[in-house]
Amino acid sequence: MAPVDLAGPDDLSFVANPRYLPYVQDSLAGVLLVPESLLDRVPEEIPTIAVEDAHVALYHVLRLLHPEQREPAAVHSTAVIAEDVELGADVTVGPYAVIERGAKIGDRCQILAHAFVGQGVRMGTDSVVHPHATLYDGVIVGDRCIIHSGARVGKEGFGFVWLDGGHRKVPQVGGCVLGDDVEVGCNTTIDRGSIGDTVVGRGTKIDNLVQLGHNDRIGEHVILVSQVGISGSTTIGDGAVLGGQVGVGGHLTIGAGARIGARGGVIGDVPAGETYSGYPARPHRESMRSHAMIAKLGEMFRRIKALEARIPGDD
User: Fold this and answer.
1) How many angstroms separate the Cα of 106 from the Cα of each of 7, 13, 75, 109, 111?
2) Which residues have a Cβ under 8 Å from the Cβ of 81 and sit 6 or more positions away?
3) By C-alpha distance, which of 277, 216, 271, 226 is closest to 249?
4) Is 305 helix (H, G, I), strand (E, B) or coil?
5) To bridge 79 with a disulfide, which of 59, 93, 196, 237 should be the other Cys (CB 3.0-4.6 Å)?
6) Grouped pLDDT means (10 residues each) for the chain, 315 residues
């Protein structure tokens, strides 16, 4: 596989979006995956395979050409594992990984080099904790989850009370639960609940450098793009998508299927299925109109000054 503009005669490439059609004419790719909706816009002399959805086709092709590699099932001699830890069948524990007492690790899980699994952690089957990732005490991880390097899951929430002239830490005694098929990106942090749990629903995918506050409730199949920050006790509905650098205030609700544009600042509830953007985040069309007006402010200012100059001043 290779990008359409870099592919050679021995490469398979694809065109999923009309914006890449200009590259097709000069492409040297041996064959292109092209959605049926774009097939009539590709020159006939270029070898193509018509597909319904190029991204779905690419998913299957890449899994065929680049099958998933996994570490052999074994426990490295340098791993530190408490005596009462329960390891399932065919588990991999890498060099210098640490698994604390009371943890239960499901079948075919992989705890890779220098990963840390705290006391009482529960992991389902086929989940992976990549190098230098941390699961704090009591975290629950479902089946087929992926925790990437540097992620911190279940750390103490950011909770303080002003007392006797200083900020005093409020004990964070809740838990942190990841449903099945959740992916957590590199250096993402998910706080445990203060009272009650922080929950990430089944199938949700979290990019790198994301922050989830204590007691957040993230629904199923949610997409959180890099550098999203969600304050505590906020609920994100199923299927919602938050673009890069979106900030969400605390104790808010973003409805199912809602979409927040990149760098949006959410300071109020967002209805289900709506698309919001800007700061403060508001319906996308309204936000775009505001941006268009701002771009015209300079010209408006000059016109107003010119009109003022034509008005005689007061005596």
Assistant:
1) 42, 38, 14, 6, 11
2) 75, 87, 93, 98, 99
3) 216
4) helix
5) 93
6) 92 92 90 93 90 93 89 94 97 98 98 98 98 98 98 96 95 97 98 96 98 98 98 98 97 98 97 96 91 89 90 68
User: What integer pLDDT is reported at residue 69 of this predicted model?
Assistant: 82
Interatomic CA distance for residues 242 and 229, integer angstroms? 10
CATH H-level, domain 80-285: superfamily: Hexapeptide repeat proteins (2.160.10.10)
**Where in the sequence numbering do the catalytic residues fall?**
214
Domain-wise residue ranges, the chain: 12-65, 80-285
Q: Other C-beta atoms within 10 Å of 265: how many?
A: 17
The CA distance from 285 to 146, in Å, is: 36
SS3 for 154? strand
DSSP 270: B
Tokens at 298, concatenated? 């300079």
Which 8-state DSSP code applies to residue 152?
E
Residues 170, 193 contacting (CB under 8 angstroms): no
Q: In this structure, what token pair is assigned to residue 95? A: 């060099």
**Pairing assessment for the beta strands 104-105 and 259-260 based on DSSP bridges:** unpaired
CA distances from 286 to 33, 221, 297, 315 (A): 38, 27, 17, 43
Segment 132-173, tens digit of pLDDT = 999 999 999 999 999 999 999 999 999 999 999 999 999 999
Contacts by 77-84, CB closer than 8 A, 24 or more apart: 79/111
Residue 273 CA, chain-centre distance (Å), reads 19
Helices first, then strands: H and E counts in the chain:
4, 35
